[in-house]
Amino acid sequence: MTGSGPVDVPLVDRLAPRCTFPPPGTAVTCAVSGGADSLALLVLAAAAGCAVTAVHVDHGLRAGSAAEAEVVRLAAHRFGAAVRCESVELSPGPNLEARARAARYAVLPPDVLTGHTADDQAETVLLNLMRGAGIDGLAGMRPARHPILALRRSETVALCAELGLDPVDDPSNHDPVHRRNRVRHELVPLLDEIAGRDVTPILVRQAALLADAAAHLDAAASELDPAEGRVLREAPVVLSRIALRRWITEATGSEHPVDSAAVERALDVARGSIPSADLLGGWCVRRTAGRLRIERR
Fold first, then answer.
1. Which of 184, 214, 244 lies at the terminal end of a domain, its last residue?
2. pLDDT band (50, 70, 90) for residue 265
3. Does 169 lie in the same domain as 29?
4. Which of 26, 41, 79, 183 ranks highest by number of CB atoms within 10 Å?
5. Does residue 7 carry a pLDDT above 80?
């Protein structure tokens, strides 16, 4: 059993103080796949006194996936939560992980809570580092929509075991075709071995420090007009980069922080070095009479 405190104190009571749920009585929607992390999210949200609605999304990608909804229904009823089940249609093919994520969030409310843990945070930081996502990416996920971000995956598994819940084991979480799985099962253990310690808390602490720095710089960068080339040229380059990254992310609807190479290309356009540049996913930035615009190629 993981966690801290006397062994006779239920694990839910020991984990609850490390969560960041809104005040009791607040209506929240939790994305619940049926895995240990999302079931723990449901349990802890109910324990926090929130009015919980659990939403399960069936992607229909494997036999028996519909049965996972029953796991969520039973858990929701047991812990006094409402439940809603959604189905989306996906076909096998390229970018399946990204398409599944997009389809899932399309049927979830914008303020949905998710069961991401500290382990997910460490993986996200490493993935963003490999993408060159800059300070926003290295700051990882913010706790507002991820209330169990301070918990470890081992703790959500232990909580389910203590409560007699039988989580769904999604085989796609072990498929090395997905980069996150290779980070989880290969890279993080290798880093632990090289460091001679558990690197996840280190990565999580670094993300928190960078999130504080990013918030401060974000506030300063919000004063800039990212479409005005002169403003970007005259501002400190760190603020120009942040303003451009935010603008590009919002304009293109990118799910992840825009990589640094795309930001530098946009900055070259702002400086007048080039008239236009490709960004990502068929988007480009152009300059006309000193003003920048983002548009489809």
1. 214
2. very high
3. yes
4. 41
5. no
Rounded-to-5 percentages of helix, strand, coil across the chain: 50, 10, 35
Q: Which pTM was predicted? A: 0.82
Whether residues 105 and 240 share a domain: the answer is: no
Do 66 and 165 fall within a single domain?
A: yes
For residue range 178-212, list pLDDT tens digits in order: 899 999 999 999 999 999 999 999 999 999 999 99
The CATH number assigned to the domain holding 70 equals: 3.40.50.620
- Please tell me the total count of domains within the chain: 3
Cα diameter, the chain: 70
Instruction: Indicate whether 44 and 159 sit together in one domain.
Output: yes
Mean pLDDT score of the chain, rounded to an integer? 90
Residue 272: give the domain boundaries: 222-296
| pLDDT over threshold 50, residue 5 | no
Residues 21 and 104 in one domain: yes
% of residues, the chain, pLDDT over 70: 92
Which amino acid, 117? T
pLDDT of residue 146: 97
Alpha helix segments (H runs only) across the chain: 11-15, 36-47, 68-78, 96-106, 118-131, 134-138, 153-163, 179-182, 188-195, 200-221, 229-234, 237-252, 260-271
Answer yes or no: is 5 within a domain. no
Residue 238, pLDDT > 80, answer: yes
Rounded-to-10 torsion of CA 268, 277, 100, 247? 50
Identify whether the C-beta of residue 107 lies closer than 8 Å to the C-beta of residue 88. Answer: yes
CB 29 within 8 A of CB 55: yes
53 shares a domain with 161: yes
| Beta-bridge partners for 228 | 291
The candidate with the shortest Cα–Cα distance to 226, out of 208, 246, 244, is: 244
- Do residue 193 and residue 243 come from a single domain? no
Structure tokens at 131: 């993408």
